[in-house]
Amino acid sequence: MPYTNAPDMPAKLARLRERFLVRLSEDLECLQKEADRLVSDDDGGALCSAYHRLHRLAGSAGTFGMPDVGRTARALEKVLKPVACIEDESRLDSGHKARLFEELSSGLQVLRSLAGHQTSSAHDPSLDKANVFDRTRLEGKQARLLIVDEDTDRASLLCRELSSYGFDSLEVSVDAMMTAIDCAENSGVVALLASPVKVPKVRTVRNSSSDPAILRLPIFAVGGHDSFDNRYELAENGARGFFPDPIQLPELVERIEKLSADQARGTRGRVILVEDDPDLAEHYRLVLHLAGIDVRIVNDPTRLLSDMAAFRPDLVLMDVQLDGYSGVHLARMIRFDAQWLSLPIIYLSSEDDPDIQLDALSKGADDFLMKPVSDDYLVRSVQIRCLRARLLSDLMNQDSLTGLLKHSLIKQTLEQEVARCRRDGHTSAVVMLDLDHFKTVNDTWGHMVGDTVIKSLANLLRNRLRETDLIGRYGGEEFLVVMPGCDLDDAERVMQDIAASFSALAFTAGQDRFHVTLSAGIAAIHALSTADESLNAADTALYRRKYNGRNGVTVFRSGPQNAPQEAH
Ligand SMILES: Nc1nc2c(ncn2[C@@H]2O[C@H](COP(=O)(O)OP(=O)(O)OP(=O)(O)O)[C@@H](O)[C@H]2O)c(=O)[nH]1
């Protein structure tokens, strides 16, 4: 796993490993004392604490690069398991205790020798990959789209047209693109290869990821003629999509958007980690954080429910044996709350007895990850589950045509923003947008072409607005945008720019080429006291804009004049 954007991560992980080594030598000392107590007069509780110590060691040593220590600890744990923590240790006769002492002592000898071979600077091969790649850098610029086209005029036109949709595009040579393939992991970069440039064959050389490198830089072929042979060759060489001549730009943009959304979903996620071993928890947190996953560690289970309410996780990773608590009971407790019924809960456990695993799963969790879990396996398992959780929540919250928030959710967002403005005193804007004469578009070119226009505006808004802005489809051809931390002047400037770009987009239907415009009304959320008042103000401004000629932006400015002001 490369340490993207995190040059200090290898050092942090190495520090955690050093801490683990110190703890390991303390644990070995304690285990020896516990073994000695077995054959002394004062043996009460020795078996139980040795068992728990070995269990913890078995689950954590592998994570810190010491799988042999983990395996030996697990073997010893199994020896103690049948007798550990029995109510009355005096029921064990002295012969039995002596045999346990022998087994434990020779196991400890092995553990000491394995630990002796570890040095604090012990080599962790995964650290070699550190800091390999920041973001795609080509000629000093950062780009989301790389355009490879032998025809420079056509490439410039495509660049310009795509930048109207808000994409940063860069014209590059095939060689430069091939360089980007090797370093474009997770960067959300897409390459567009214009015919007759051929998609380079999928390479079998693999690096840190198990995917062929080319699959990590998605390539869309654009232009050229449409035939089965052409499509087959492109598919064979690893292209992700094909847009033959004449290139339907809205379709291409939509595919790029969808790919980016899938990639973002696939790598992001919010995870609550319930783990009482602080070093192990921190190790998992760092590893997941590197993969773009936000982690909140809960080491005090009494704070679990309040942390979940505040953090809104996509997934819970839960240690099964916590200090004084059982992860199984905690999982069941989480399910008391209807809002968490479908939340994935995964146990992290060193329990390898399938019956016990099954029993634990039947009590509220969805899966087991066996400790020690490798960093790569942990990241992949979490990513897959976060992706599924996000797809499900998107299905519930997003409008199917545009992928924007549904009406009820964007209204709810506005209400939250009104409350935040009142609480923090910051400025925010709300915008109501509506396509102009859209009925004519549908009547002239049909509903499907109308849908393409709606989707194009959605894509433009997504690309042009900040990530923190919230965009919803408010009605058929009406959109609502909430811009937190944005004052009226900035909102007006951004919306004028978007209105101008939108009117410049050329749509095609058969032989026809046409343009569509939009009208927008803007109001200041902080100047009004309720969400409904903000909506009414934005709607009044929009109405005024429609009345005064459409294709532009009107701002509702509260004050003595309390009247909308025009901006074209
Ligand atoms: N293609 C398509 N059309 C839609 C959708 N939702 C609403 N519409 C159409 O949008 C059009 C809205 O028409 P009107 O409310 O008369 O507004 P307009 O023609 O845009 O006129 P102004 O808003 O006054 O500029 C109607 O024809 C609806 O059928 C949709 O999801 N897809």
TrEMBL record:
Modification sites for 4-aspartylphosphate: 319
InterPro entries: CheY-like_superfamily (IPR011006), Diguanylate_Cyclase (IPR050469), GGDEF_dom (IPR000160), HPT_dom_sf (IPR036641), Nucleotide_cyclase (IPR029787), Rev_trsase/Diguanyl_cyclase (IPR043128), Sig_transdc_His_kin_Hpt_dom (IPR008207), Sig_transdc_resp-reg_receiver (IPR001789)
GO MF entries: diguanylate cyclase activity
Domain HPt intervals: 9-118
Annotated GGDEF domain residues: 426-558
Top EC class of this enzyme: transferase
Sites bearing Phosphohistidine, chain numbering: 55
EC number in record: 2.7.7.65
Keyword Nucleotidyltransferase applies: yes
Known catalytic reactions: 2 GTP = 3',3'-c-di-GMP + 2 diphosphate
Domain of life: Bacteria
Positions of the Response regulatory domain: 144-260, 270-386
Keywords (A to Z) from UniProt: Nucleotidyltransferase, Phosphoprotein, Transferase, Two-component regulatory system
Keyword Metal-binding listed: no
NCBIfam families the record matches: GGDEF
PANTHER family per the UniProt record, alphabetical: DIGUANYLATE CYCLASE DGCM-RELATED, REGULATORY COMPONENTS OF SENSORY TRANSDUCTION SYSTEM
Name of the molecule in the record: diguanylate cyclase
Organism, as annotated: Marinobacter koreensis
Organism phylogeny: Bacteria, Pseudomonadati, Pseudomonadota, Gammaproteobacteria, Pseudomonadales
